Amino acid sequence: MRVLVLGGTAEASMLASLLAGQSGISGVLSFAGRTKAPRVPEIPYRSGGFGGAAGLAAYLKAECIDVLVDATHPFAEQMSRHAIQAAACANIPLVCLSRPLWRPEVCDHWICVADMAAAAAALGQEQKRVFLTIGRLQIEAFAAAPQHFYLVRAIEPLEPTPSLPRHRVILGRGPFTVEAEEKLFREEAIDVIVTKNSGGEATFGKILAARNLGLPVVMVARPQQAARAVLHDPAEVMAFLLLHQSALLPREE
Ligand code: NAP
After folding, report:
1. What's the 23 CA to ligand 1 centre distance in angstroms?
2. Contact at 8 Å (CB) between 97 and 232?
3. CA-atom Rg of the chain in angstroms
4. What is the pLDDT of residues 164-217, one digit of tens each?
5. 59, 103, 183, 239: most buried by Cβ count inside 10 Å?
6. pLDDT tens-digit readout, 184-199
7. Is 191 in contact with 118 (CB distance < 8 Å)?
8. Could you give all domains of the chain from N- to C-terminal order, each with its CATH number?
9. pTM of the predicted structure, to 2 decimals
């Protein structure tokens, strides 16, 4: 059985490791190609877009893929939409693997917003020191609030340099501990954190650190997705794949 995993997340890499140890299932992990040095998976991988939903459907057919797993990031809205269309076109099952949402506790001070423009506006007029961990694609939204200082954390150096007048980039790839996040927020005198509601353990430390220090968090909501069944655990996806594999095997008469 052949499986294509749309990746770019820790969950996709975990599933790839499980697939590497599974005989009878050959998996391919797909990266968008945005990260210059992705962690090399234990299964074959490919990199770069497919050319829209039609391109993905053509790939699924050409590579005789039996199951498509969408394990992209919850904010990779377009790829997830294409996955639904392409799996329907190729007439194969689609399984979604995604982290559960983070949810606030009563002691948290979250300001929930729909998008980055609203996040920039939610910072207010008064000058603040802002910790920004939103990926690199939407940083320019904060040019609308140039009065703040932004400490931007990214996996790789940002090119081009963000046009925010007052900012510094620090590099880091999760997981991040709550202790390290608290130390960083203290040393940098951070007033407020801006993050997407990505979910997952690897970057939850900043949410716990904000809770411990009583800092507000501007939380950007996930984009709306078409209704679909979502699994949260790579092991659950493996169980589904094994079930599907046994259904594909020819029955003995
Ligand atoms: P997106 O806006 O949903 O997708 C844009 C285009 O990138 C897609 O139409 C597709 O190109 C290509 N693409 C996306 N994921 C791909 C994959 N796994 N394999 C092959 N092509 C892919 O995606 P995005 O938000 O830019 O995210 C890009 C990648 O970074 C994803 O793999 C995602 O899992 C990862 N990531 C995203 C975020 C985030 O906050 N958005 C955070 C962490 C990791 P074609 O139309 O040409 O096929």
Report:
1. 29
2. yes
3. 20
4. 999 999 999 889 999 999 999 999 999 999 999 999 998 999 999 999 999 999
5. 59
6. 999 999 999 999 999 9
7. no
8. 2-100+224-248 (3.40.50.720), 110-220 (3.40.50.2000)
9. 0.90
